[in-house]
Amino acid sequence: MLHDPPKASAAERRSDSTRLQTGALVIIAFAVVLFLLVQARFVLISLATAIILFSLTSDVINFIARQRIGPFRIPNALASIAAMVLIAAALLTLTSILLAQVNTVLVTTLSYTERAPSAVASLFAWLGEDSERAVLNALRSIDVSSYLRSAAGQASGMTQATVLIILFVGFLFAERIWFQTKLQNFVGDEEQANRIGKIIQSIIHRVNYYLLVKTVISAITGAMIYVLARAFQLELATSIGIITFVLNFIPNIGSIVATALIALVAHVQLGDATITAIIFTIAGIIQFVNGSIIDPMLMGRALRLSSFGIILSLAFWGAVWGIPGMFLSVPIMVMLLVVCSHVPDLRPFAILLSREGLPESEKMLDQPIERDLFGQDIKDS
């Protein structure tokens, strides 16, 4: 004789219902946040970039304020204004350089439109004439001019984004002196406010160190690629060097794209498969040595990010914010790692995001940061 299964108690039913409602609310909240991230991407990308640049200002301001003109020390207010001017000038200069190089690439690409399909299709000659012809027909069917117009339109938006970023940094800069007071009043607990302040300082220090190392490595890589392109007399040597510098800020994928780019330009211009292979090999060695050997050595344990986590972050933010999201993926991941490390309920996520499964501990948080971005003693500031 079959027995009826025991009926769930009212408390168990309420618990199941609560879990179901919580899960549904989490899914709805994630969908809403994702929708807002996509719809407000221009403003949010500019804001995220401004916050990252703003995190650099504290070290820049302290560095300028430590300088002396004879017996006099530069006032903090003057150092703050100088730092803001330097950041604005650097952003406008970088944007102008990038726009000029994009324009050069677009003009040169138009001149290559006729011979590029044949040159690329020749790379598939080893598969047979039918394959080579199919690739050639596919490439000729692509409307290159429409893609170039789209690229030019997106590049022109860089100026608007730069101006918006400068405005954001300026307003954040104006609020800087009251930040700690606001934090204490918001939290309502001085000890907890100090703890949150230490977490923010840890994020700023790690992101600043990442940007410093990445800028140095990217600059060296871009310079070496420029020398390589000049050695083989490629027309876009300067543009390739600058684009390589920029692309190397995108983890993993950026170096691959930069290596493929110089090889493609070399093959289209020179039309010699052997020379193209030599250029591709040398560029690949440069990227491997700088990106896989020197870069990790300089980074050390400062980031301690999981490689798989970086790929996931790159894919997610690339899908949500496009190419700008790829540039911001690592700084955002650093922020998530530090925050999750100090929130008990989120610490399992920090373990997954960290490279060795050893995220930042409370003891590490209590250790003072002795040196700033410029390697100078903070106690002297």
SSE inventory with pairings:
Blueprint: H1 10-39, H2 41-65, E1 68-69, E2 72-73, H3 76-112, H4 116-122, H5 129-140, H6 144-174, H7 179-187, H8 190-231, H9 237-247, H10 253-270, H11 273-299, H12 307-341, H13 347-353, H14 362-366
Antiparallel strand pairs: 1-2
Q: Element order, helices and strands?
A: HHEEHHHHHHHHHHHH
Rg from Cα: 26 Å
Biggest sheet details: 2 strands, antiparallel
Mean pLDDT: 78
Cα shape: globular
Judged by helices, strands and strand pairing, the structural class is: mainly alpha
How would you classify the quaternary structure?
single chain
Question: How would you sum up this structure, described in words?
Answer:
The protein has a domain at 40-174. The chain is 78% helix and 1% strand. It is built from 14 helices and 2 strands. A two-stranded antiparallel sheet has the order 1-2. A hairpin with a 2-residue loop joins β1 (68-69) and β2. It starts with 9 loop residues before the first helix and ends in a 15-residue tail after the last helix. The model has no long low-confidence stretch (mean pLDDT 78).
Comma- or semicolon-separated keywords:
single chain, 381 residues, mainly alpha, two-stranded antiparallel sheet, 14 helices, 1% strand
What's this, in brief?
With 381 residues, this protein is an all-alpha fold.
